[in-house]
Design goal:
The complex is a heterodimer of chains A (about 450) and B (about 400).
Chain A lengths: L3 E6 L2 E6 L4 H7 L23 E4 L6 E2 L10 E3 L3 H16 L15 H9 L18 E4 L2 E3 L9 H9 L5 E4 L6 E4 L12 H5 L5 E3 L12 E6 L8 E8 L5 E8 L12 H4 L14 E2 L2 E2 L2 H14 L4 E5 L5 H13 L3 E3 L24 H6 L10 E7 L7 E8 L8 E4 L8 E4 L5 E4 L12 H9 L1
Parallel strand pairs in A: 1-5, 16-17, 16-18, 18-19, 19-20
Antiparallel strand pairs in A: 1-2, 3-4, 3-5, 6-7, 7-10, 8-9, 11-12, 12-13, 14-15, 14-20, 21-22
Helix pairs in contact in A: 2-3
Chain B lengths: L18 H6 L14 H11 L11 H6 L9 E7 L9 H7 L1 H15 L1 E8 L4 H16 L7 E6 L9 H8 L16 E3 L2 E7 H13 L1 H5 L9 E8 L5 E6 L2 E2 H7 L10 E5 L8 E2 H4 L3 E2 L1 H6 L8 E6 L4 H15 L5 H18 L5 H14 L7 H22 L2
Parallel strand pairs in B: 1-2, 1-5, 2-3, 6-12
Antiparallel strand pairs in B: 4-5, 6-7, 8-11, 9-10, 9-12
Helix pairs in contact in B: 2-5, 4-5, 5-8, 13-14, 13-16, 14-15, 14-16, 15-16
Chain lengths: ~450, ~400
């Protein structure tokens, strides 16, 4: 155990690790401190000078991101002096800022806006009207757009490409108030994690080409979920909204901090995988390419079960929730069927990297292994019931439960995606995590569990 | 005023930049002394001599050398700061163009003391012609076998003022943007690629051979008790004979201006002096009347000795224009790393421009002071505090001129 010491912040005592950063304590204890450049994943850079606090015995205010905890330290984070310092520095930050919040995509989740509400709200001293002009519309590549005028030069984005991805695409060029973020000449922002700079950017300088102008962020509802792009189990927020007269829709995924899994980031492919959840969805019941009603479908289902009794194989997709897999296993026992979940098809070595991406592209493969389900391809059988497994199988008759449209299949039943129901999955490290239900569709399709209940009744 | 030539001794000799002339006049003789002294002995002599850094700050060199590890697995380095970019300062270029071998000799002694095997000379990009002289001197020294124990490499800067700040200088040498680093919390050397490094000004290093040759007391015989030795003071502006002349600390400023500079140009009256490069607060003619040139005296009048590069202004000088000139420089040169400096330098520049354009108001003058207060003491390096000092000193001393310009 490291050395814990007591410090006083605003007359209250706190315990903190000796030598750790003061700003970490302030953030952890939810003591209000404004900052642009500091980020727990990127460390201190000390350039924005917003996180000023007063420390007893020090003549001048100090930045909390470069102050190390010492025994008995006395810190003031409020008071007239410190508020003035923060106000003054914020005012400097705003001199050349375009203040184009009405057309800025960051509005509503912008640190500059938030701090202005905390420390601004005064008559500006700035009487000089001409602002420094920069480019407002630069396509950096990898779905990231740059507006140099809105930038506060916190250097989070450049530090991300330097320290996290080690790809060094971004840099700051120019000096003084002409300094700006840019890519190296002839280069684009091009790495599999590039879009994280959009989340890192505290202001509207870096925005997502995919998301910008699609929604005002204050209209979005947010749930917590797990990315299904691979077995890593990166924690995400799903931002969705149901516009009037329209259906509930996902507008973006954002990384959700989990130090045990993904830290602060997710890969771009995972981030954009929300699109798959609402494209080419299987919504109707199809029998021999013709749409049929639910009653007719259940009847056909029963008939097939009776016809092929004791010659049935059930195949499970390794992306389904634990709850769904268990329900399928129980059902399989009832109908005395063979169960398998072939995993080989999910291997994708080309996808794998050293950061977050796993070669195992099935979100819940670990659970399949834990439950000792057969992971080999099944032998030919009479009736095969496929719960959304992507492989092709050989059988006399086949029933397919599908989230997405497929060309194959004589008898297809639609099922809900992971965003349309709630359940748990186990990531490749054996951690069980919850996916909350994000979408409440106008015409919801049944989940696997709901289908099985219908079949039973 | 007695003549004292410690660093500038060989400046007036013909071809003093060549090894032949240098050696004929006592150059490199101090290296013999290294056989008598251990590295820690050398450091002790420098500490005893109270040699103060001549790059502007005036911090004692000895204690800085003591921070360098004598036992270390990592290699130690010396970085000689020749980024001389302070307006009004042009002394280091005299050394590298007139007596580069003195600098090389100083480097060899310093490297011996701090156990460095490699020294870099960070030279400002604009000094190409002086760099060529320095490089040929280094080449000569290599040929003569003087640099067997220690390599010297010239690193040419790309023209940013801030690279004269020691940590920005090292960042620049590492191939990064010249941004000052956050100050360490305890006393420690500077770091070059994670290796302990000593950064000293050219003149500081060039003063070392004299001290080692003649001893600490010989050096302390010059100057005042707390500011011992000499400095290559420089003069520019409205002066009959601008230039660089070595003088001991404690010399009367007016005497210096009148004797070496031959007085104010065209017999005009003196109005103001910026004593040590533009980053030091401006002083009125009255203030400099009895002022001596040493660190303590200048601090007592609310300015600083800086690099000793005096800018002399006569009675016809418009102080608002002078301030605008300086602020334009700072606006251009702020590195842009931290907010108060990046945005503040532009703001004050524009405000003073507004006053010059006769569009200013009385509030603008107070606003300048207010911004100066915000810029002071809240940044990574001392660039913004220097801007703040300059603004305050101009307005405090010449407020009537600013008000008259409205």
């Amino acid at each position: 155990m490291s050395d814990m010491v007591e410090v006083i912040v605003d007359k209250r005592a706190y315990n903190a690790e000796k030598g750790s950063l003061l700003i970490d304590l302030l953030i952890k204890e939810k003591i209000k401190v404004p900052y642009f450049c500091y980020h727990e994943a990127l460390g201190a850079d000390g350039n924005c000078r917003m996180c000023m606090v007063e420390i007893e015995g020090q003549k001048r205010p100090q930045i909390a991101c470069d102050t190390f905890i010492k025994e008995g330290m006395e810190i003031r984070s409020t008071g007239e002096n410190i508020e003035k310092v923060r106000t003054d520095i914020l005012e400097l930050e705003l001199i050349n800022h375009p203040v184009d919040c009405p057309t800025c995509d960051q509005a509503g989740e912008c640190s500059l806006q938030d701090f202005y509400m905390d420390y601004g709200l005064h008559d500006s001293k700035v009487t000089v009207t001409e602002k420094v002009k920069h480019d407002k519309h630069i396509d950096l590549g990898s779905n990231v757009m740059l507006d140099q005028e809105r930038c506060v030069l916190c250097a989070r984005c450049t530090r991300f490409t330097d320290k996290i991805t080690h790809t060094h695409e971004l840099g700051i060029i120019g000096r003084g108030d002409h300094a700006r973020v840019a890519t190296m000449p002839g280069r684009k922002l091009d790495n599999p994690y590039a879009m994280n700079v959009v989340d890192l950017c505290p202001v509207g300088a870096l925005t997502s080409k995919d998301f910008r102008f699609s929604q005002r962020v204050w209209f979005l509802d947010t749930v917590e979920s797990i990315c299904h792009g691979c077995a890593k189990g990166c924690n995400i927020y799903i931002d969705h909204n149901k516009l009037k007269y329209q259906d509930d829709r996902i507008y973006r995924f954002r990384p959700r901090r989990n130090d045990a899994v993904n830290g602060f980031f997710i890969c771009d492919e995972g981030r954009l995988s929300y699109k798959e959840l609402q494209e080419d969805r299987q919504e109707n019941i199809l029998f021999n390419h013709k749409e049929i009603g639910e009653d007719e479908a259940l009847e056909t289902f029963q008939t097939l079960l009776e016809t092929y009794v004791s010659d049935i194989t059930v195949v499970i997709d390794a992306n389904l929730f634990n709850e769904e897999i268990e329900a399928i296993l129980e059902f399989s026992k009832e109908i005395n069927a063979q169960v398998c979940a072939p995993l080989e098809i999910y291997r994708d070595e080309a996808f794998k990297d050293e950061m977050l991406k796993s070669a195992n592209r099935a979100a819940n493969a670990k659970m399949i292994e834990n439950l000792n389900i057969d992971t080999q391809m099944p032998a030919q059988s009479g009736l095969l019931i496929n719960f959304n497994h992507p492989a092709e199988f050989e059988a006399d008759k086949q029933i397919d439960f599908r989230t997405h449209q497929q060309t194959q299949g004589a008898f297809i039943l639609p099922i809900a995606t992971y965003a349309e129901s709630e359940g748990h999955i186990m990531n490749e490290d054996g951690m069980i995590q919850l996916c909350q239900k994000a979408l409440f569709k106008n015409d919801p399709v049944p989940t696997v569990i709901e289908w099985l209940e219908k079949v039973r009744s | 005023m007695r003549e004292c030539k410690i660093v500038s001794r060989k400046f007036d000799l013909e071809d003093a930049h060549t090894l032949k002339v240098s050696k004929a006049n006592g150059g490199y003789r101090t290296l013999e002394k290294l056989k008598e002294y251990s590295p820690t002995d050398i450091i002790k002599i420098i500490t005893d001599a109270n040699l103060r850094g001549k790059g502007g700050g005036g911090a004692p060199a000895g204690p800085k050398w003591e921070l360098m590890p004598q036992e270390s697995e990592k290699p130690s380095f010396l970085a000689v700061n020749c980024d001389e970019s302070e307006p009004g300062t042009f002394k280091d270029r005299q050394i590298i163009s007139k007596d580069p071998h003195l600098l090389i000799e100083g480097i060899l002694i310093t490297c011996y003391a701090i156990k460095a095997k490699h020294a870099y000379i960070y030279i400002r990009g604009e000094y190409k012609q002086y760099q060529d002289i320095l490089q040929s001197a280094i080449d000569e020294a290599y040929e003569a076998g003087l640099l067997d124990a220690c390599d010297i490499t010239i690193h040419r800067g790309a023209g940013a003022y801030i690279c004269g700040e020691k940590s920005a200088l090292l960042e620049s040498m590492e191939g990064k943007r010249g941004h000052p680093r956050l100050k360490p919390k305890q006393k420690e050397p500077e770091w070059y690629f994670g290796n302990p490094t000593l950064v000293n000004n050219v003149e500081t290093i060039a003063s070392v051979p004299f001290i080692i040759q003649n001893g600490a007391d010989a050096y302390k015989a010059y100057g005042t008790e707390r500011s011992p030795g000499t400095l290559l003071f420089a003069m520019s502006g409205h002066i009959e004979r601008p230039g660089v002349y070595e003088a001991e600390f404690g010399t009367s400023m007016m005497e210096y201006i009148n004797v070496y500079g031959a007085g104010i140009k065209n017999g005009k009256k003196l109005k103001a002096v910026i004593p040590g490069g533009v980053s030091c607060g401006v002083l009125t003619a009255k203030e400099v009347e009895n002022l001596t040139l040493d660190y303590e005296a200048l601090r007592n009048v609310g300015s600083a000795l800086g690099t000793g590069g005096m800018i002399v202004m006569d009675e016809d000088t418009c102080m608002v224009t002078a301030l605008k000139n300086i602020l334009e420089f700072y606006h251009e040169e702020s590195c842009g790393q931290c907010t108060p400096c990046r945005e503040g330098t532009g703001w004050v520049d524009k405000l003073v421009g507004k006053i010059l354009d006769k569009r200013g108001t009385k509030e603008d003058i107070d606003k300048l002071l207010d911004i100066a207060d915000t810029m002071n003491g809240k940044t990574v390096c001392v660039f913004a505090p220097a801007v703040s000092t300059v603004i305050v000193s101009f307005i405090k001393r010449f407020r009537d001129e600013f008000e008259g310009a409205l």
